């Protein structure tokens, strides 16, 4: 069924495009500029989603408040990774992020009294924006675009100021950076916190848009997908590369869907392509690295 | 004659690594607006002493006082914020940044460096950045003939030396530690560096530099300490 | 009271068997880290390849079990060799992060390729005789497969330690682990040594994969949890310290099963992660640090 030209469907894809973009912007900047490889960014996405879902289901919190609180919850959670980053080398830190991802997923899965465990949380009410109920993709799209722009502004502003230069320096030479009175650890933590916040905001959007969350939505494959997209960007162009990556991802995803593969096969193929992307990007960058 | 309080007072510093005595009861003083030279053979512990003063290494015993404040247990960034800057012998540029960006990182700025103030006080940050750029451009023209958009990873060793020096000039520090500032430089660049150090001192800073080159020492140093096998001679 | 004690013994046996598998996997991580100082994230793939190769050889090609066992493990070893050449060797010069990413990518690639090739549904390997229990000491029983696990881990550990200590390959590995450049200067073919390290580690992982497949079933994700737990064991034992790693693997399996006796079963896997986080934060050198020398 060639439903691509259906406006609703196209808008639906765009909504996800912009929701993912928020996660990927933060992840990209955190990875390239601050040198923190987060293999488990899906955890922040999931924490944001569940926080927003629970707040709105149990306490009737509105969309904007829930989104902000979701971002803050993810930011808070990132402090654990931040603490680890103070004590761990880069590759051990990556593993810690993986462990964090898995522990979060297990928590979401097993803490059934709160999260409804393996059944997921259904019945999340749609976002109420200025009196309208944003049920349709077309009505949700503006908000996801605006929030994505918000992410762009934050990241570009930081990267173009001396603060951004210091952040790059904190990865290049943290020792020399200290001799100018700056603290590399604080800078990296700041970037990590922001990237977690953005992921949390994205998660909240996901919850309000899809109206159902399940622990498996926020696992390793999701995290790796985000990472693959983020890897296409660079430290100097954290945003532009993300858009390229997002475009590649969504176009490929839709092509696969059009080729009528069964759902599982499509999933496998996407993961294969994601893995290949990461592998090729890593290899390519290594060949052309200036040392 | 009234005695001037020293800016930096190093007393009785000793450091040993696994049984080897790198530094043994080293003491020295740097008076305000003077140039002190630390010289000696390779391996006599000069760089280690600099590392200790900057807070990267803890001495076994001894004290370091900056204007009467004991700083021997301070972290490197705290010591830097008290007004001490240094260059590194092996040169440590921020490789992904251009020359200009390196210098901007070194320039002290409050608003343009804060996660909050770049968003909530954008005008202040922009003003700060503008004046810092102005200063940086001046130094950039002087030392690099204005080509400050080059990535510092692409610089020659001599240019990286100059970058080290330019960075500490931008840092506005009151005590600057140079680790072999003129080694591997052309004689013209050497003259430039000597002139820069003179200007720094006349603007009020103090300098402690490690060097072998006797000419430079003669030209600049007000006081010379010689370090041999960890001891002052 | 007697019943409780018997149950405890049974749990211990189960735990040690599980631990034996973790040890087999962990040794691979330990060896690779010892020589190259990075973490081979694609190790999970070796486990899966061992299992699926065995499945194909026995079920589809009708090859006798023992031969299939050796062949499948060797295929896993061969995969390890290829892995090093393709995914890690070109990245030698970079930070320890890029091989990590490369490894993860390969692990995901292999898992999904296997899923496409064999389908996501699990396969059962065991015929009834394999899962029979054997009587021990009159009162306790041990599953045959658990016995094989303990035996293979024990044999592998012994052979490995002997090899490292007394053979020329072992000397070469230890020299490379201690200082790669120095070893090269002394004329050791470090590239070859490193390849062999990968082959050995992946071979053992393949063995683990086959045995795990016997105990449970063959799925594309078969490598996932054992590889993580194997890594945790390797970390706890001290990356690069083979003896410590083996011990740590056994301990991990033991504690997992013992603790789950009292805790709700869902938290069994979380135990390993808590251990991981604990060690990462407080004792990243592992239980027996001072690593390379202890090879």
Structure, explained:
The complex is a heterotrimer of chains A (291), B (233) and C (295). Chain A is mainly α. Chain A has one domain. Helices cover 74% and strands 2% of the residues of chain A. Chain A has twelve helices and two strands. In chain A, strand 1 and strand 2 form a beta hairpin. In chain A, helix 6 runs antiparallel to helix 9. Chain B has 233 residues and is an alpha/beta fold. Chain B folds into two domains: 164 residues, Rossmann fold; 60 residues, no CATH class. In chain B, the strands form two sheets. Chain B has a six-stranded mixed beta sheet with strand order 6-7-8-3-9-10, sandwiched between helices. A four-stranded antiparallel beta sheet of chain B has the order 2-1-4-5, with helices on one face. In chain B, a hairpin with a 2-residue loop joins strand 9 and strand 10. The radius of gyration of chain B is 18 Å and the shape is globular. The model of chain B has no long low-confidence stretch (mean pLDDT 88). Chain C is mainly alpha-helical and 295 residues long. Helix content of chain C is 73%, strand content 3%. Chain C has eleven helices and two strands. Chain C has a two-stranded antiparallel sheet. In chain C, strand 1 and strand 2 form a beta hairpin. Chain C is globular and about 60 Å long. The C terminus of chain C is likely disordered. The chains are: A mainly alpha (291), B alpha/beta (233), C mainly alpha (295). Chains in contact: A-B, A-C. At the A-B interface, helix 6, helix 7 and helix 8 of A face helix 2, helix 3 and helix 5 of B.
